[in-house]
Amino acid sequence: xxxxxxxxxxxxxxxxxxxxxxxxxxxxxxxxxxxxxxxxxxxxxxxxxxxxxxxxxxxxxxxxxxxxxxxxxxxxxxxxxxxxxxxxxxxxxxxxxxxxxxxxxxxxxxxxxxxxxxxxxxxxxxxxxxxxxxxxxxxxxxxxxxxxxxxxxxxxxxxxxxxxxxxxxxxxxxxxxxxxxxxxxxxxxxxxxxxxxxxxxxxxxxxxxxxxxxxxxxxxxxxxxxxxxxxxxxxxxxxxxxxxxxxxxxxxxxxxxxxxxxxxxxxxxxxxxxxxxxxxxxxxxxxxxxxxxxxxxxxxxxxxxxxxxxxxxxxxxxxxxxxxxxxxxxxxxxxxxxxxxxxxxxxxxxxxxxxxxxxxxxxxxxxxxxxxxxxxxxxxxxxxxxxxxxxxxxxxxxxxxxxxxxxxxxxxxxxxxxxxxxxxxxxxxxxxxxxxxxxxxxxxxxxxxxxxxxxxxxxxxxxxxxxxxxxxxxxxxxxxxxxxxxxxxxxxxxx
Length: 495
What we know:
CATH architecture of the largest domain: 2-Layer Sandwich
Structural class: alpha+beta
CATH topology of the largest domain: Alpha-Beta Plaits
Number of domains: 3
Distance between the termini: 118 Å
Radius of gyration: 47 Å
Number of strands: 18
Helix content: 40-55%
CATH class of the largest domain: Alpha Beta
């Protein structure tokens, strides 16, 4: 025998053994499946909520489980030997199937079943025919689904009642799934958001909530559905169909919709006008109605906050009281409306002309207060005071007339002139009156020594800048640049 023949015979032998092993394994697997099926059938037969039955080729019951007494009101002894079809025809009325189950190849029918006492229930028959000799016998299960039908009907009634109740509510309501789908809503929500019911049906919660609030809203919905949180109330924003953003107070709670599983019930109360009214009230409480500047109450809070920051940083801050010169003359000559317009223009000019970090408020009448925080030197405060004096020297146009007013300014410094807002404002007010006494249109510091030093440095600084910027007669460009650097060094040394 050749080597090839030996190899082939050995391979065939291995395949034969494998086939035998596979055959035995398949046989064992089928036997195990049969035993499992018998066990499940036995468990089902012993369940009093089910009837397991078999018929012969002529449709007569041959096997009936004990559950028949509970489901049909007839015991096995009353059914065996009797016709299944006759029983159905005389005691049952077929109805549309409402609760189908997955049983491949089976006939599934629902019936209204009349019990011996005259009461009617709902049963479902699942059966499969099989050949028995020259006839077809039947094997199947009968189960009571009356409770299932009642529950579904009750659920539909509950949902209908909920919807009717929601339609009468003034707030917007919607029910959303875990995926954010809108399952149910009321007309109030349509009115709130500007959508028709047909449009809203095609949207999801992600189309309604503003982007900045979407993540926390979705997280709350999911936590409710998963039972991880109790109902809570919070504020957020929603977007109407016209892209108008509205403030709403939301409340999210768990809601169960039967076959749909758990969902979330969201209540939305439009609080936009309430919030706007609150903002208006807060603005009126904190800002001057004529000029829009912080009023005395709000200004004192701002000064208090700036003082706390100055204490922590070790920096100075300045408080400046500004009073208009000749304002009474304008008021008496042109009238109060012209006087009010002048105050509005003064407020706007000073606000726009001050350094970015400075704050100006109105104490009342023609008196203003400027807060200048984070000062490293007194000279910085002097420059701000001088700039306000110059801003007020430019004429104003009131009712087609050129109006000239000046400002007298008094300044106090923290910590030298006081350590609280009231003291600093009082000292700045006194300095302002000294500025008026010497002719107005200028500024004075609360401390004369500081005022003299600041004025001297400011005068020298101005003179040195002029000296740097103006070339002297016959001076070359190079000589001018060298002198510029020399004078700049002198100026820095003086500081």
